Amino acid sequence: MTMQRTIFSAVFLLVLASVAPDTAANQSDWPQFRGPNRDGKSNETGLLSQWPDGGPKLLWSVQDIGKGFSHVSVSGGLIYVTGLEEKEGVLSAYTLDGSLKWQANYGPEWHVSHPGARSTPTVQDGLVYVASGIGNVACFEAATGRLVWSVKLFEDYEAPQVQWGYAESLLVDGDRLLCTPCGKKATMVALNRKTGKPVWTSPALGQGSSFCSPLPLIHNGKRAVVTMTETAVVAFSPEDGSALWQHPYENPRQNHPITPIYHEGMLYVTSGYGKGAVGLRIAEDGMSATRLWEQPRQDPVHGQAVLVDGYVYASSHQKASGRWSCMEMKTGKLFWEAPGVGKGGSIIFADGMLYCYSEDGVVGLVRPTPEQCKVVSTFKVSAGDGPHWAHPVVAHGRLFLRHGTVLMCYDVRKP
Predict the structure, then answer these.
(1) Of 154, 307, 331, 405, which is most buried with the most CB atoms under 10 A?
(2) Which residues are CB-contacts of 191 (< 8 A; sequence separation ≥ 6)?
């Protein structure tokens, strides 16, 4: 009888699995800046392709996460977000239902021009890493908030303060944590992510820090980490920190470069404020890069861009007066410009749709197509204050939006 019951239970579970939604496959974490692969793309499926009037259902909101412009990270059933309270940085962890799990202080945070947290937490193997706007780095236990280690990155590597604050979101590479202080002693640094001790330092290139968060890539079987400094696009070896190549890219007005996009041997880079986007071709041996095209109409500043089916979608800051645009990655050809969801903003991709969050506070679902700007649904964010600079995040069937000190969570799952 016991054997029959065991067989019946196994068959029942198989049948149930064949008809029930695969929640494990449909729900995915967003453990770092710009998502699992740092490309602004969610692995979620089963999401609404159109929102009801007024937007998706608001599940909950939290009013006191501290000032900041960083977006949340979601990992292991917890939501992590950085914020500024008075002059200190606070890392908060919430459950998926919005309950506070823990809070931890990570030291002085940027509190002058545009005060607030900049860095998005990076979560890996039970540890969470944050950087402050003044150039300090800290590691915490993800489950408890216990401080594991901290370093004064800018002080250790003699890096000057950035005009608008250090805004890099840190990159985990195996057992190393990669940071880019752009100091006199090193441009990029690899720390042992469990102890905070240096593993390697790159050459000091004499280039200032920018707002860029690095991108790991594999080109013709060779690993590299690409980022942007104040004056160049630079590729480093993640093994020893050696500089593989650098290509000049300087914006004389202001430098707010996005994380580069890599696709089929090409890089898309831009920094806003009228500089426009540039397409670089990486050499076969991965030791140099050549400019192929320049598209002055797409300059999304810190709102980032996303690549879908060979086309780059982004807002524009100056040349196109805050309009949204679509261009072909391979050629740099502009396919359309449109008002979209409002003046400028940030963008991600999930389940076949673009999620656009404008600096006007409008959030929209846009269907990605090179033919036209197809806005499907919109709603207005009314809570919070200050600039609408935080990026949207889609994870576990939820849309997370941050506006100043307020974090909002919306249900975007299909019924």
Answers:
(1) 154
(2) 137, 151, 176, 177, 179, 197, 198, 199
